[in-house]
Amino acid sequence: MKEYKYTEKKDTRSGFGAGLLELGRTNPNVVALCADLVGSLKMADFIKENPERFFQIGIAEANMMGIAAGLTIGGKIPFTGTFANFSTGRVYDQIRQSIAYSGKNVKICASHAGLTLGEDGATHQILEDIGMMKMLPHMTVINPCDYNQTKAATMAIADYEGPVYLRFGRPVIPIFTDPNQKFEIGKAWMVNEGTDVSIFATGHMVWKAILAGHILAEKGISAEIINIHTIKPLDEEAILKSVAKTKCVVSAEEHNRLGGLGDSIAQVLVKNIPLPMEYVAVNDTFGESGTPEELMEKYGLTENDIVEAAQRAISRKQA
Amino acid sequence: MKVNPHNKSIDELKEVAAQVRRDIVRMVHAVNSGHPGGSLGCTDYFVSLYFKVMNYSTDFKMNGEGEDLFFLSNGHISPVFYSTLARAGFFEPKELATFRKLNSRLQGHPATEEGLPGIRVASGSLGQGMSVAIGAAQAKKLNKDNSLVYLLMGDGELQEGQVWEATMYAGGKKVDNLIATVDRNGQQIDGSTKEVMPLGDLRAKFEAFGWNVMEANGNSFESLLPTLDQAKAATGKGKPIMILMDTEMGYGVDFMMGSHKWHGVAPNDEQLEIALQQLAVNEAADY
After folding, report:
1. Domain holding A206: CATH number?
2. DSSP state letter for A63
């Protein structure tokens, strides 16, 4: 089992800010838009170096999505920044018609996704965004796992032609991936090989899956852990290769159990190789105020929840 | 710098407009669906832009570099948009016969998905066009491209909140390479705008948001062309431009005029014949 150590913790949104800053220096077509959340989205450094390539839209997310669509017509690569809730549910029709159906090269960059937004409560804790975005034809959906991967993903999506939803978050979490990694859209990342159960995790849940892997190892269970940073297009090949070996599955995501990563994986399984599967996800409910840790505990998104799900999945395997 | 590929006289524009109106009633009649009322009302505006005012190439490129761009926000008047594009040379007029049919590039509402030349964004769900036009205008400024962006909206559409987000942005951020027009026909699906949701004093509203507001009779080239010239001359002066354009829904076909009832209803065989008689052209070139 590979050991993942960390010396530093950072928020994934800062990885986005660092990636955007780098893009400002390397890609003259990249422009940024924000709906009055520059500090939260860590966009200040980009703006300082490229004031003429930044559009402050004010508190008007629908208008921001439309302006971003229009900017692509002149060859720009717009990165929109606001909270995940205001990046998706609030502007679904604008994204659907002006961006996705119109095939516009807009990068919808969404911070504060999921429960770990914390104390602001359910109005801001969107748990349905992956579902909404993955249902849109043409849309790519990415949810990286730490600071380094978010930075790499931010830079990678500028080189990809087409609409992208990039999801990241607020809390500081361990940095455990390579700072010089090459981010490949749609290519799952093997975190740890194993033989008894496949754990497919995305976003903040990848680190928790690694912790769960250690607990399972102590119990004599060999878990294969795979980081599905790209939920759409899904790396079906990596999933099928893993489950052919392990014969059971756990999905782990900071999202509603309906419509998220788990459902995408379940579709692959039922079509190709039906196997026992357990979801670690929010159970079709809204969140509430609390610290990120308290919320992840209450809503069943800890490493122990992954361990229990793995044990349930293994127990359901055909003898 | 591009020029207008047609640059027609007023008499010639009238002839083109009659042909476009013939196309519109024939297109909606053929599939017994579509929106003739607003299309007929805005025909003279479309013909003015594409046959006189805008500088562009019919060799369509999405980025429209160095070209004036046009965006249609009220996408339901697609018949007039399609006919104008075809007659202007973006595609063959015979393709108008595929309007609203399966496997057509001429969708019920304009779309880019099928690659129809001349369309730069999908529209139909109302209220989104001004935002997109602003983005395209901002990109032109970044690219140091002095050509202009034109936008048409319906008046009923002004009831959508996003329009006012965009109106505030364009005024506040001085998007002065944008010439927007509202088709003020006073009608929407459920009745007159007065009955459904009064729009109030539109001149005062847009002026309060920092726009340069002009007015024109949208069914008179003698009024439209000088107003569009005046609008062009007013660009680059720190204010976006709004033309409040009065039109008669259904203009050119007497039984369709002035009533919201022809917003989204096609004429029957007999009505089509009467309409075509009223839309006589010197040399009919029906598709």
Report:
1. 3.40.50.920
2. H
User: Which domain, by its residues, includes A152?
Assistant: 9-174
Which chain B positions have a beta carbon within 8 Å of A68's beta carbon?
Answer: 135
Any B CB within 8 A of A107 CB: no
Residues of chain A found within 8 Å of residue B160, distances taken between Cβ atoms: none
B177 inside domain: yes
A26 and A150, same domain (yes or no): yes
Residue A181 lies in a domain: no
User: How many CB pairs below 8 Å do chains A and B form together?
Assistant: 120
- Per the listing, tokens 């001149």 go with B203
Name every chain B residue with its beta carbon within 8 A of the beta carbon of A97: 122-125, 128
User: Residues A162, A105: contact at Cβ < 8 Å?
Assistant: yes
Separation CA B64–CA B57 (nearest Å): 9
DSSP code at position B137: H
CB contact under 8 A, A62 and B133: no
> Mutation test of the interface with chain B: which of A53, A54, A73, choosing the one with the most B Cβ atoms within 10 A?
A73
Which DSSP state fits A181?
P
Residue the block writes with tokens 């748990």: A127
Q: How far apart are CA B42 and CA B27, in angstroms?
A: 16
Of A174, A198, A233, the last residue of a domain is: A174
Number of separate domains in chain B: 1
Tokens of A199: 């754990």
The span from the first CA to the last CA of chain A, in angstroms, equals 26
Radius of gyration of chain B (CA): 18
Where residue B238 falls (left for φ over 0; alpha for ψ -120 to 50; beta otherwise) is left
Residues 241-260 of A with CB under 8 A from B: none
> Interface pTM (ipTM) of the complex?
0.97
Please tell me the distance from the alpha carbon of residue A167 to that of residue A188, in angstroms, as a whole number. Answer: 16
Chain B residues inside the 8 Å CB shell of A52: 142
- Which of B76, B116, B132 to probe by mutation at the A interface, max A CB count within 10 Å? B132
- Contact in structure between A95 and A66 (CB atoms under 8 Å): no
Examine residue B286 and state whether it is found in any structural domain, yes or no: no
| The two three-digit tokens of residue B159, written as one number | 């009831």
Together in a domain, A149 and A217? no
Regarding whether A212 and A147 lie in a shared domain, the answer is no
pLDDT (tens digit, 0 to 9) for every residue of chain B, 287 residues total? Answer: 799 999 999 999 999 999 999 999 999 999 999 999 999 999 999 999 999 999 999 999 999 999 999 999 999 999 999 999 999 999 999 999 999 999 999 999 999 999 999 999 999 999 999 999 999 999 999 999 999 999 999 999 999 999 999 999 999 999 999 999 999 999 999 999 999 999 999 999 999 999 999 999 999 999 999 999 999 999 999 999 999 999 999 999 999 997 888 989 999 999 999 999 999 987 769 99
Chain centroid, CA A31 distance in Å: 22
